[in-house]
Amino acid sequence: MNNVTGTAFIVAEFRAEENEESAPLYTDNVVKIWLNEETKEIAAEIAQNSPAAKEMVKLRTKYFDDVLSNQVLGGCKQVVILGSGLDTRAARINGERVTYFEIDDRATLQLKEETLTANKVSANVRYLGGDYVKDGLISLLKQSEFDFDIPTYFLWEGNTTLLAKKDVIFALKQIRDNVNSFRLSFDYMSEKVILRTTGYQDINDYIDKYESMYAPWITGFDQIATLADELNLKLIENFSTADLHVQYRPRRSLESNLFKFYFVCTLENMSENLPS
């Protein structure tokens, strides 16, 4: 579990479980092609030790699905998914003539492509094997037929907490400086969680247990609006997963105080706007 790529299967299991709800937040009939009894057992163990993780994955999936769907319906023709793992959106949310670009390590993308093909799942996607930090996000996009001049939606899910803050900011600057018109959504943790200063012992205990099985959380943000301003980007939306829980699960109680400190947001460049 110290291999971040390996956790793609765990996240996929968490996402897949929502299909079993009587009124699911979203439907993902593709994700099951990567799952088996082994992945189910490991995911169950993780969920038992870190129960909030599963629900937070489901809430962010719903949010990102909705934002992406709105962008596609509004006419966006390019979608870039950073650290895509076993993301299934290229197959699930594939409006007319939308091209997806997925960036992750080559082994993950090769497995993904081969499994989709074997299961006859179609997706208009171009796989860019590499590390968008070390290899450079823009350099990777230039290796494909990515069009830097048309409106693009970037999705950055489950990554920022695990990266150095300078790398998060550099990736944002790369997109800002090279892509004419875009919106970008990502999830992030409050810096108070990283520093263990939330005032909640249950959160500190949660982090210690989660990091012992996964990877250390090293980056958080407390003033995302200030960061957007500093980068000359516009903050469109910013919600805690506690906010999403109230909206999406109004009849369920909040499982953990951590939901108050885990966020999703959407930014756009100031000069050009994607269709709203």
Layout: helices, strands, pairs:
Layout: H1 7-17, H2 37-49, H3 51-73, E1 78-82, H4 89-92, E2 99-104, H5 106-118, E3 125-129, H6 132-142, E4 152-156, H7 165-178, E5 182-189, H8 191-194, H9 201-213, H10 224-230, E6 233-240, H11 241-248, E7 262-269
Helix pairs in contact: 1-2, 2-3, 3-11, 6-7
What does this structure look like?
This protein is α/β, with parallel strands linked by helices and 276 residues long. The protein has a single domain (4-269), classed as Rossmann fold. Helix content is 44%, strand content 16%. The chain has helices spanning 7-17, 37-49, 51-73, 89-92, 106-118, 132-142, 165-178, 191-194, 201-213, 224-230, 241-248, and strands at 78-82, 99-104, 125-129, 152-156, 182-189, 233-240, 262-269. The protein has a 7-stranded mixed β-sheet with strand order 3-2-1-4-5-7-6, with helices on both faces. β2 (99-104), α5 and β3 (125-129) form a beta-alpha-beta unit. α1 (7-17) packs across α2 (37-49) and α2 packs across α3. It is globular, with a radius of gyration of 18 Å. It starts with 6 loop residues before the first helix and ends in a 7-residue tail after the last strand. Residues 272-276 have low confidence and may be disordered.
